[in-house]
Amino acid sequence: MTLLPQTDHLRAMHTVIRDRHAAQADFVHYSNRIIRLLLEAAMELIPVEKHEVTTPVGATYAGLRQAAEVCAVPVIRAGESMEPELRAMCPGIRIGKILIQRDKTTKLPHLYYTHLPPGIAGHHVLLLEPMLATGGSAGAAIKVLLDHGVSEEHIVFVNLLASPEGLAALARAHPRVRVVTSSIEERLNEDAFMVPGIGDFGDRYFGTAA
């Protein structure tokens, strides 16, 4: 697991987005800044190879270049909040979609829709979902990728907040999946919400909160 460095600057951004009174514009702005940090950290996990280039002064620079095909799969809807920053970083990246919703009563995930890039089995996949609570939805999304031939070790699960319970469940079920997060929360409450938490990320990001 990769946890972003817990700097004062990151904590200040978390303070804004965790505030129940935060304006939507502020919530989106600071969420996007954290998302960018997460995606940069996730891309550090993609394999590279040596690649030399000639600089404008005629010197040789012993550099690196990406050595694997990468695509992204956001979990609709909250995961789609990560798309704009990813497209800014990686223009032309192919993006699939998975729709999984958790039953409000049973808390169990249900798969409703899948559309993935052709040849995804040969790619490294950034699985985008801001919240890792019980791990049920993440596990269901990972199973979809595995069923389409993606190697477990080629999946990078990118999220903002993770609960200890969700991380433990994911580690038990899929130990080779790598996780990148900006915060490990204290616990889940009796309603399976993270504490201190952030509320419903999708509703707050897209402006559909009551």
From TrEMBL:
CDD domains: PRTases_typeI (cd06223). It is an enzyme of class 2 (transferase). Gene3D superfamilies: 3.40.50.2020. Residues 5-208 form the Phosphoribosyltransferase domain. InterPro entries: PRTase-like, PRTase_dom. Its cofactor is Mg(2+). Its EC number is 2.4.2.9. Pathway: Pyrimidine metabolism; UMP biosynthesis via salvage pathway; UMP from uracil: step 1/1. GO terms for molecular function: GTP binding; uracil phosphoribosyltransferase activity. Keywords: Allosteric enzyme, Glycosyltransferase, GTP-binding, Nucleotide-binding, Transferase. Belongs to the UPRTase family. This is uracil phosphoribosyltransferase. It comes from Spongiactinospora rosea.
